[in-house]
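A quick aside before the break. I want you to see a complete sequence-to-structure record at least once, exactly as it would be stored in a machine-readable document. Don't worry about memorizing anything.
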Amino acid sequence: MDIFRGQNLLEFAERFKSDEDCKEYLAHFKWSEGFKCTKCNHTGCQIRGNHSRTCNKCSHTESSTANTLFHKVKFGIRKAFFICFEMSTTTKSLSASHISVRFGITEKTARLFMHKVREAMKSSESYPIDGNGHIDEFVVGGKETGAVGRSYHTKKKKIVCAVELTEDGKVKRMYSMKIDNYSSKELKRLFDKHISNEANVVTDK
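That is the input. The structure line, written in tokens, reads:
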């Protein structure tokens, strides 16, 4: 079974027609390297009809959704899959109220699940940029009277950003960091935390 790739909603809907399809998909990746009981570490198991696994030694049964985003989801795993798909493929910000209407769940439920998804999507920060890195700084915020360009007397947030590109120019990895000023000492924090000594760094051409 291959991992689903792409942004085509019709293809996604065709791939995941039911909760059963979603459970099968989760089970494949969860135990792709073999089963190991979370209770006794035994590696032998029986495969159940609902794609769960039962340990041959201690009889502990673990579902395919256990220890995943989809554990005990009350509104259906398939809906949860579609929410994840929409959050990961849209280029616009999604609100809980929009998701609640679109998928027929309460706004509170949508907000809680979306928070779980965003937490899971956070970078582990374990993989520094080690290829072609493009680095620049910028500010975030609206126009302010008398605050032009790199003005230090501004309420705008100063950000430094590093983007690693693939050989064909696509974004591979990105890190950003809030800085207090544009000094080399402040900019160095990004290098120390996210950029390998082997990286090829480019800025302002």
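Two observations worth writing down. The chain has two domains: 9-120, 132-202. The chain has a mean pLDDT of 88. We'll return to this after the break.
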